[in-house]
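Section 5.1 Outputs to date
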Amino acid sequence: MKRLFALLLTLALSLSLTACGSGSAGGSGAASSNPDSGSQNTQTDLPPVEITNVSYDPTRELYAAYSELFAAHWLEETGQEVTVINSHGGSGKQALEVANGLEADVVTLALEGDVQAVADAGLIEDGFTAEFPLDSSPYTSTIVFLVRSGNPKEILDWDDLLRDDVGIITPNPKTSGGACWNYLAAWYYFEQQGLSEDAIIENMRTIYSHVLVLDSGARGATTSFVENGQGDVLLAWENEAFLSLDEYPGEYEIVIPSVSILCQPTVALVDEVADDRGTRDVATEFLNYLYSDEAQRLEAQNYYRPSTESVYTEFVYDTDSKTITAIPEDGKWIVDDIELTNIDHFGGWAEAKAKHFADGGLFDSIYEG
């Protein structure tokens, strides 16, 4: 009888905690705006929980650090230990893996279009871009050039990629979200030069004829350029380029082109998996907490542009130079003086994917032609 009573008491406490968690981590914009609000829960007899975050290539360092930060936050708030399993790869490939059965409680992918592929498989509910603030994009990035020290080929802007003596490293837009951003940034540059679409396509065909390695993901492309010594320029996520400066001081430089694109990685709860595994509360808070000041500073320290303006301004680098040869000693690295287009210029991800990246789209004709 005592054992039955104890079991019923434990169940009642567990249900009470779950109800509490649903109210504070429900994923609404209001809840996300203050992820640290609410009283602490000192319940300590909850069993440990595990969630899986499926992300894209260059977020390895970020989510290794963030998972520890979040675990401490969740333990303090609920008394429950959480382990986060992080999976990384080319964003498009990762989306396909989740759609085909890789269990993910959350996805933190390189672009909205890849998350939409998971939603199209019936795993994510409609309206995921409105579930968290800023179109469910807690941090942003942009595309820059990484060149070897001294910039021996004098690569300064997108039109330099047209030269026959320049070898380019960039991943494959069919499997990598970062590669899609690279492609669109180049396309936008040639648009800004007043070229017709036919002329832009010819320039894009020339650029991709100079690509030496078309890796499946952004991290693989970085490895080809940095570790394997291939190519003269890497078209890179901003954070990948800064990590290379950090890890190989004096060997590389970042060149900021005249125009680029605002990359908005998208996060989403994988509703079907989270509900099936009973992890909705902790998985939702995992994404909510990305907007906290603590997490925003961690994102900036990993060379992602934070979405909170006050944190963003802490990391703005006051420089007129478009070449960065070393990480500034004060940790300020964001070059704010750059013209950035965004995906809306291309009609949103559905339109951009259909025109440029779908099977039989413009990229296929450019690369295969």
